[in-house]
Amino acid sequence: MSSFTEDLYVRKIGIRKWEVTRAFDYHVGKEDSREVVTIPKGFITDFASSPRITWIFFPPDGRYTQAAVLHDYLIKTKQYSRVKTNKVFLEAMEVLGVPRYKRLIMYWCVQAWTYVFWNSYTSMAIILCLLLTGCASLYIKRDEKGNVIEMHQKGLGKFAVDKDGAVNTELAPNWYPKDVVNLYKD
């Protein structure tokens, strides 16, 4: 079975922001594997990126925290494909003794979430953000190819999405999280 070489050591540096204070390795596939991911000292994480509404079942930290830090690092570096990154996360949770039902729920959630951001499906990300923030009505205008070109949310105004999926921030409401588009791109 795979293994972590060190425990997780972090310090809080902000709201839902943690800095790794001691580098650690993760051996992918088996304990003595040559395939090693090194999470460096100084890496910034938010632990498990779960929506607040799910914290009763999946808080940002738990038995799976070190696997979540590993997953954050793999997403940031894109060292592996999206699918392999998520499978390494699943494997790492097993190493940490996370119950099977919880591993599978978290795995399928990250599969869906990373599909949105990894492939830069910005319009889908915007829709998810709108729905997760409790918006009741959403009008979506598409061009002849099915691309989202404009969205209107009752009471919040409208904003446009260009042909590459980027948000036209001049039309975006002031509550719109403008960094959601580049969340995993820097």
Please sum up the structure shown.
By secondary structure, the protein is of the alpha+beta class. The chain has helices at 65-77, 82-95, 100-118, 122-132, and strands spanning 3-4, 10-14, 17-20, 24-27, 36-39, 44-45, 138-142, 148-153, 157-161, 167-168.
Distance between the termini: 32 Å
Low-confidence regions: 153-160, 167-186
Mean pLDDT: 74
- The proportion of strand residues reads 15-25%
Please list the strands of the largest sheet in the order they lie side by side.
7-8-9-10
Which percent bin holds the helix content?
25-40%
Shape: globular
The domain tally reads 2
Structural class: alpha+beta
Taking Cα atoms only, what radius of gyration do you get, to the nearest Å? Answer: 18 Å
Order of helices and strands: EEEEEEHHHHEEEE
Using DSSP, what is the number of strands? 10
Number of helices: 4
Describe the main β-sheet briefly: 4 strands, antiparallel
How would you describe this structure to a colleague?
The chain has 186 residues and is an alpha+beta fold. The chain folds into two domains: 3-118, no CATH class; 122-180, no CATH class. The protein has helices spanning 65-77, 82-95, 100-118, 122-132; strands spanning 3-4, 10-14, 17-20, 24-27, 36-39, 44-45, 138-142, 148-153, 157-161, 167-168. α1 runs antiparallel to α2 (82-95) and α2 (82-95) runs antiparallel to α3. The model is unreliable at 153-160 and 167-186 (pLDDT under 50).
